[in-house]
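Exercise 7. Given the components listed, write out the predicted structure of the assembled complex. Treat all entries as one system.
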Amino acid sequence: MIGNDRLAVRKTYKLYLNGAFPRSESGRTYEVTDAKGHFRGNVAWASRKDARDAVVAARGAFAKWSGATAYNRGQVLYRVAEVMEGRHVQFCDEVAHAEGLSTSKARAAVDAAIDRWVWYAGWTDKLAAVLGGSNPVAGPYFDFSTPEPSGVVAVLAPQQSSLLGLVSVLAPVLATGNTAVVVTSRERPIPAVTLAEVLATSDVPGGVVNLLTGNAEELGPWLAEHADVDGIDLTGAPAGRAMEFEREAAGTIKRVVRPPATEPDWTADPGLTRMTPFLETKTVWHPMGV
Amino acid sequence: MSSVFEYAPAPESRSIVTIAPSYGLFIDGAFVDGTGESFTTVNPATEEVLSEVSAASDADVDRAVAAARRAFTRVWGPMRPADRGKYLFRIARLLQERAREFAVLESLDNGKPIRESRDVDVPLAAAHFFYYAGWADKLEHVGLGTAPRPLGVAGQVIPWNFPLLMLAWKVAPALAAGNTVVLKPAETTPLTALLFAEVCQQADLPAGVVNIVTGAGDTGRAVVEHGDVDKVAFTGSTEVGKSIARAVAGTSKKLTLELGGKAANIVFDDAPIDQAVEGIVQGIFFNQGHVCCAGSRLLVQESIHDEVIASLQRRIGTLRVGDPLDKNTDVGAINSAEQLARIRELSDIGEAEGAQRWQPACELPAKGYWFPPTVFTDVSPAHRIARDEVFGPVLSVLTFRTPDEAVAKANNTTYGLSAGIWSEKGSRILQIANQLRAGVVWANTFNKFDPTSPFGGYKQSGYGREGGRHGLAAYLTGADSK
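Answer.
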């Protein structure tokens, strides 16, 4: 990226909120380094107010996103993969720096992340058939069940896997028609900021995804107790805090995904495990005959 | 009583049921005395004491969980799935054979009309066992991968509104999936669960597979918080549901919750009015309104409000309130003095906040716990009777002008269990059904249940489903499940 004697134009790393890229309303930033400790940038440090604004944005975007056809949602998620592919080199560089990976390992992570979007893009219009169906009730009624999104989902993204892990927790939330407020890896947020730029140019409506760089330890409790958040994925919750966040979430009967003991192998086939926690089942009855 | 229809008394005989003067706990296949303080269960229609029942202490719950664990490890877990299914088929058949006995006992202990216990509660309970029996040897088709596994010991806490039916909703899928259970029935309605224990004995169900620990909140807490319980299933109030979710936080216990509701029953101006009025009555007065999915908020399109209310009042005037064992009774007794006090309190608040109370002229029995069918009009969405779950025969009527307003008002609640739509226009029904944030939507019908049909809530009405394939997923783990 740096020419012979050309001075590089550096990027200001900001939040992604309601389709725009604001700084934190708090004015705070924090210094991010690569795995070797070299300075990479001052990244926006999201506040409680930013988190609440993000929930408002996600709620506002919910009707349109959940009401879009499954085919349309699938195409939008596929478009994310297309646009990511065009930024492949940039992602490889950022993931390598953030996670201290070799070029080949960083490339493998980026490849898997892009392919994961493709995989989930293909799920959007199959979930209803796989998880729903008609129910043969003992009476003259037509009765059918369909999966529907829970609503606004807060995601504490994995702390280690800065891109593949992030995509692995975000894409299923979107594929199922939910909208998301994501707190990115604290130490490794830069690939997430680039992903935000991809989302902003991939026909994902503003507010469907809101990415907050900052500290899950600080924002987790507010998102866990927020009355307009329907579900929370605690995967990236700091060690020792997940139980407290889950207790906070109980106050509004949130759907909760508990964190694994250690970060899982994100290359493994996730099956339905990351989609079903944020899906409701709606059953509709109608009489036949009368 | 209304003079429109005069009926001679037609009481169902209670001689079919023998109620013991006292009952112990059912642990490891046998009735044993509990070490907690005993309590009495009364007939809410007469305040007559029916029996004295053991309360399970922490130590008793410990024994029950240990029995369930042993049965899971040694007998029920290793058993051929087809044999597990056969036991459940046996239970279904025994419930059918003893249906009248269960119905009479349920009406005595709960206060619900015999017509409902006989035609709804008991047949549906048997149907649940029959349905899940068939799943026991087909679990690889549930959708959780080729080798789903049971979770282990399930701790289940159920409410007093459908005592036997809620037992069936909990126990049948748990056992079909290969789990063993420790079940706590509600304090005011323990008797049909204890009769079910006899059914387990008649079925030769291996000891420890089903354990029944009676008691109040402390017993329930001991079941939920027990360290050797792998799965918690609860049906009851949202408030208790929250405390349970807090209690299992940080553990590996899997949790499903079926909590309160404040269902909107939406009547559009193109609805078949007579059918809708029947549905409104069924929606709110079924089981005295002690139904989490009751249609307690009537949303009527403004243009037909007066017509619907007049027709509704005429119909309510013909409801017979009284002896639950009378086969002509439509509305039975309120389940407990405590619940009656809550219904009275919220109704008084309704009036104090400015809503208009209407009740038919009806004589209530002198003894027992009774509340007449009640309709509140001029209710605003801010009124407590439009927001709080009354859990009684109290209907709040609100109006709307446009479909969008109907949806906005219907969804304006922290609950999301059920909803109703009345319209003759198919495309409207499907569109509104799509927009309602509720787990069950009844269109041109209300309060229908079936073992094949998933039931459960959105939002603060809980999570997880009971019924159908979905109900099994709550008791299994597999490569594809959490």
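Discussion: Chain B touches chain A through 47 residues (CB under 8 Å). Chain B has two domains: 22-259+459-477, 264-443.
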